[in-house]
Amino acid sequence: MREMKDSGLPWLGIVPLKWEVRKVKHYYRMQTGFTPNTKNDDFYDDLNGKDWVTIGDLCDSRFIPPNTSRHVSKKYIDIFNPPIVRRGSLLYSFKLSVGQVAFADRDVYTNEAIVSFTADNEDCLRFLFYSSCLIIENANENIYGAKLLNQKLIKNAYIVYPPLEEQKKIADFLDFKCSQIDSIIEKQKRIIEKLKEYKTSLITEVVTKGLDLNVEMKDSGIKHIGLIPASWKITKFKQICNAIGDGIHSTPKYDEGGDVHFINGNNIGNAYLVFKEDTNTINDEEFMTYKRPFLTNNSILISLNGSYGKTSFYNGEKILLGKSAGYITLKNDENKRYVRYYLQSIPARLTMDLSLLGSTVANLSLRTLKDFVVIYPSKDVQNKIVEYLDCVCHKLDSNIERKHRMINKLQEYKKSLIYEVVTGKREV
């Protein structure tokens, strides 16, 4: 076992005797990017402009994407002559999604939330691709525990620096091991997508054709639905609902100690609402200033824009809906579970998509929901369909959840492996 020494940093502990522990600025050259005035359209040109990398372009890939989401115009470049990030540089995000890294495989520009590193030796950057995970340990924290970095903190961040030959050896080892792990993760992701596709296909088949393969069929008169059982009806939400609406179109006064959750589309999608860490709350006094939606235990919540069409059951939660959250309150004798399954079907999705044709903003309207066409069997058939889909979909969802857990474990293992190797606690 090789000889170790105390790094002098509590969060780092011991490192190999021959390794250096110094500040980033002692080893790497770095620069930050820029953001043109967003109110000046002449500064952006997404058709003919130059690639301008933002944090959203750094997505767990070794290289930046072939085409960035935004492009800076030639006019801006000619006027301000901003610093260019040269091919081969390592990009590191230090705001919002802190610690995302990727290599620039061509000359690009970056925004002000990204720092780019260069070095005389390529292997130094290959090693930094992995050891950059240590930079976050030098961050400050805000009152909520979020990590905060800036240029000064990054320049003065302490990291490890093995001999060059060992840096290459470590980078080669991690390239190989991480590619293996990533390959397994991608395989699991593909399986998840296949399971989701099968689930959607199964739901579609059952809510449009039923469970009895020998039943007499008829033409639904709807091109993207085709044949349906002869005894089934076609109805609209406004005929089976007591109320259809959306949330407030303003921003309430938030209160961290409030017990009323302010709900938007990102809380919707699971069987029941998910209250995420960034879900805002309001107090009862603020809540009482708004007209409350007509919600019952037979209500379905639906996302109206962005990832529109996601649904969740309302379960009596104390909530205020935002403008991206809608609700469908069915009559008391209607089967909300059947309706939610129908909303997950391919015909339902097509109905939503078709309603948005020509629209510049992906936003489901209340008019679309009120006139939403539903294939409607008898109550007895609905109950049988729900019972069947509950059983089958539970098995599929459990399988998908197992795959997600496996992916999370693999990602944690990869993270742990990188840390152990780049700090010298595991020799390669």
Give start-end ranges of low-pLDDT stretches: none
Distance between the termini: 11 Å
User: What is the fourth-level CATH superfamily of the largest domain?
Assistant: DNA methylase specificity domains
User: How do the strands line up in the largest sheet?
Assistant: 4-10-7-8
Q: Report the portion of residues in β strands.
A: 15-25%
Rg of Cα set = 27 Å
User: What is the residue-mean pLDDT, rounded to a whole number?
Assistant: 93
User: From the 3D coordinates, which CATH architecture of the largest domain would you assign?
Assistant: Alpha-Beta Complex
Number of strands: 24
Structural domain tally: 2
Category by helix and strand content: alpha+beta
Q: Biggest β-sheet: count, sense, barrel? A: 4 strands, antiparallel
CATH class of the largest domain: Alpha Beta
Shape: elongated
- Could you estimate the helical fraction of the residues in percent? 25-40%
Number of helices: 10
Explain how this protein is built.
With 428 residues, the protein is of the alpha+beta class. The chain folds into two domains: 4-162, Adenine-n6-DNA-methyltransferase TaqI, Chain A, domain 2, CATH 3.90.220.20; 192-400, Alpha-Beta Complex (Adenine-n6-DNA-methyltransferase TaqI, Chain A, domain 2), CATH 3.90.220. Helices cover 33% and strands 20% of the residues. The chain is built from ten helices and 24 strands. The chain has helices at 74-80, 122-131, 151-155, 164-209, 237-240, 284-287, 336-343, 346-355, 366-370, 379-422, and strands at residues 4-6, 14-16, 20-23, 29-32, 50-53, 70-72, 90-93, 101-103, 109-110, 114-118, 140-141, 147-148, 158-161, 217-219, 227-229, 233-236, 241-246, 260-263, 281-282, 299-303, 311-313, 319-321, 325-330, 373-376. The strands form nine sheets. Strands 4-10-7-8 form a four-stranded antiparallel beta sheet, with helices on one face. The chain has a four-stranded antiparallel beta sheet with strand order 17-23-20-21. It starts with a strand and ends in a 6-residue tail after the last helix. The mean pLDDT is 93.
